[in-house]
Please model this.
Amino acid sequence: MYISQLRLLNFRIYREAEVDLLPGVNLVLGANGGGKTSLLEAIATLALTRSPRSASIADFATWEHSEMGVSATLSAGSGKVNLEFRASRQTEAGRWARRLRREGQPAGSRQMLGTLGVVLFWPEDLLLIKGGPEPRRRMLDVVLSQLSPAYAESAVRYRRAVDHRNAVLRAIREGAARSADLVPWSEALATHGTEIMAARRGYLQQAGEVAAEAAAGMGERGDVQLVYRPGLGGLRDQPEGDYARLLHAAMAPRLAEEIARAQSLVGPHRDDFEVALGGQPARQFASQGQQRSLVLALKVAEVRRHVLDRGEAPVLLLDDVLSELDHVHRTGLIGLLSSGLHVEQTLITATEEQGITAAVAVAQVLDVTQGQARVRP
Ligand SMILES: Nc1ncnc2c1ncn2[C@@H]1O[C@H](COP(=O)(O)OP(=O)(O)OP(=O)(O)O)[C@@H](O)[C@H]1O
Ligand SMILES: [Mg+2]
Model:
């Protein structure tokens, strides 16, 4: 499956744009600030039913417009599918109302997620190894919400439970509520937290094996492991741990601190995972080159998991990564693209051709300037 046509309306720098895309490698070229990243973000927003970069529609809707949208036609051997993400600004308080459509019919996230699979790789992904836990949690959410709409739903319910629970914690601190008022929200946190944690643990177990193989393929000698570190406030994770029980056990001793800070301090919003190479945490010990191999290996694991779970390769969105990779990893990535991954469609952005067309077979070049994307004849 590949995107055959993409349409944007008031998405960041774009007013109205329509682009035909081809299977294979679509090279998106243009100067800084022209709209290359925004184009990939628009595709990911449609796939995920939310932006992978910003939480709110107000960030990616063009300033001063009150209607925005992204839609695409997906083509496969079996036919075509249309997906649409639209939003309008409500008059009061500048809120945005989102509407999703599939084949022109109103749809929920459930009917949209997983239809268009995407794997994103942008320069900030290099932080997956050296950065704080936030990008790693985001990576897990991006992958798992596409593989399982149930996961996406758990994540929404979990967020809501934490927000309510924090509000009650604040009310307790101000003397306006009692500890007993927390019970339903602690239950909800544990229920949806368990769903999220079990999915993340399962993903990391399997992705670890694929990543290890991919890293070995890039010449890394040490064994690669992805070790889940669930946000259990210091309680030890157990093999096949019963997360609901562990979450309740982790919450109990933190209650006074939670009230003082009006914040829920345990749960998957505090999760992390460690990438280990040769038994050592990569965060502390991996060299620049090893970090690049590990990030690439994580991306390969994402692609493979799409193939396994969704039965087809995702569209690969590579934002500016070729310039971030050294020669060895660039060659490795291009090798994977041209043979190893069996990806049907890739969008690669770059400011210059930088010999890309010499290294990889490019199906077409899109020139992007000032929110206009044109296929180069
Ligand atoms: N909500 C918005 N409304 C209008 N314009 C926006 C909005 N958000 C971002 N922009 C503008 O969109 C432009 C395009 O940004 P984008 O990141 O897509 O460029 P790019 O081609 O990837 O550049 P670079 O090569 O530097 O990465 C920026 O100049 C930015 O100021
Ligand atoms: Mg960019």
Q: What stands out?
A: The mean pLDDT is 93. The pocket of adenosine-5'-triphosphate (ligand 1) is lined by residues 12-13, 30, 32-38, 60-63, 320, 351 (CB under 6 Å). DSSP finds 14 helices and 15 strands in the chain.
